[in-house]
Amino acid sequence: MSGLVGSGDVCLDVRAKHGRYTRALAVLAGPTGQVHSIEHRLRPIGRLTRGTILLGCGNVTLHAMVSGDGRQRPGTIDNLCRQVGLTKVNFIKLGSEDLEAALVGAFHTLLRDRPSILLEIDDAHFVRCDAARGSLIRSLTVSLGYSMYRWQKNGWEPVTHVTEGPRFHLFTARPLPRS
CA dihedral in degrees (78, 79, 80, 82; nearest 10)? Predict the structure, then answer.
């Protein structure tokens, strides 16, 4: 991620779980950057809090995204940006289980900021990669002008569709140099 996130960047780690990417993003964004680590349940927030405190990640803010009525349902990225006052988002990491909800609820942020999106697709979700998910990926690439890349041995290679194998796909509005 070092070529994608730099000092001072604002990053979102959606469905942070144990915070592995949160911590990496915190280092890359540096003391002038921000990392917003988002979980859809309150319990993992405790683990994330302990981990970020122990590692001295002072640029990390933890969020339990819940709906407006306070029930534990995912909120949206656009709502989070409004509530927290984020005027720029540079990078979003999310898992395939969050693709539909995260991207539909991030439309304003995607149009305004054009953040790079790192999508992690595990084998179980790849098998369930249905027409609706394909439609969202086409929306990113065709309607919003993102380019899609897949991680290969030595870097990001352009692809036209989600592929098996390496679990990371990158969507970026600015083309990357070929490795």
Answer: 90
**Is domain 10-172 given the CATH code 3.40.50.150 in the classification?**
yes
| 52 vs 112: CA distance, rounded Å | 29
Print pLDDT tens along the chain (179 aa). 778 899 999 999 987 777 788 889 999 999 999 999 887 665 555 555 555 555 566 788 877 765 555 554 446 889 889 989 999 999 999 876 666 666 778 889 999 999 999 987 765 555 555 555 566 677 777 778 888 888 887 888 888 877 666 678 899 998 786 65
User: What single letter denotes the amino acid at residue 21?
Assistant: Y
CA distance 121 to 25: 19
Three-state SS at 75: coil
Rounded Cα–Cα distance for residues 93 and 13 (Å): 5
DSSP state of 43: H
